[in-house]
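User: Glyoxylate reductase. Structure?
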Amino acid sequence: MISKPKVLLLGGIVHAHKTWESLGEIAELVTPTATNRAEFIEECKSGKLDGVVVAYRTFDSATITGLIDGELVNALPSSMLFLAHCGAGYDQIDVHACTARNPPLRVSNVPTAVDDATADVNMFLIIGALRNFNAGILGLREGNWRDQPALALGHDPEGKVLGILGMGGIGRNLKKKAEAFGMKVIYHNRRQLSEELSAGAQYVTFDELLATSDVISLNLPLNVCSPLHCFVSFPQFTTVPLS
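Assistant: Predicted structure:
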């Protein structure tokens, strides 16, 4: 009888319990006993996880394994060929170390799963900043019901120019939401999008985006080698118009 492949669960599952359990029909489901990184590495080296082919990880698994760096990748069982990451951003994973391992550890993520939800929060923050919500909320929590001194007047989103830096899935989703509030959308990207993807948003240079936007939304990956670390700082903000 052919044994089932082993699938390792790293981290907790919040909603998809039935889906995870259904994998038991085709695979042997394994969970580590370790409670911290040192114990997990030792568990890997002990051979208890030998035969694991795939690991599925959630963000909270970092409390047990720490970052998926070179040390951890080299401690994983050699049978493990795939790491399925439940998240769009994979800054917790050293992909270069995974690629360099022999055999390579292939990493997958879910880049579009939270595009809509992230754009919702993005739009909430934009409206909150324009309407000065945070100052009002803080005043209410402090018992300052009559706003003394008076809060600065807010701004209407309608007619404002939203500059989206990074027109990926989240940026394109945000564009649709911003236009519902009457905002004009311009964008800058590594490369200009097709008419179908840009859906009418105007492509501009980075300098043009800074100089003509009333609101700027950064939709870039925050990784070690990411341009976000050096893309936008004090010199760039001095060129943004004050409105």
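The CA atoms of residues 210 and 240 lie 5 Å apart. The chain has two domains: 6-108, 114-238.
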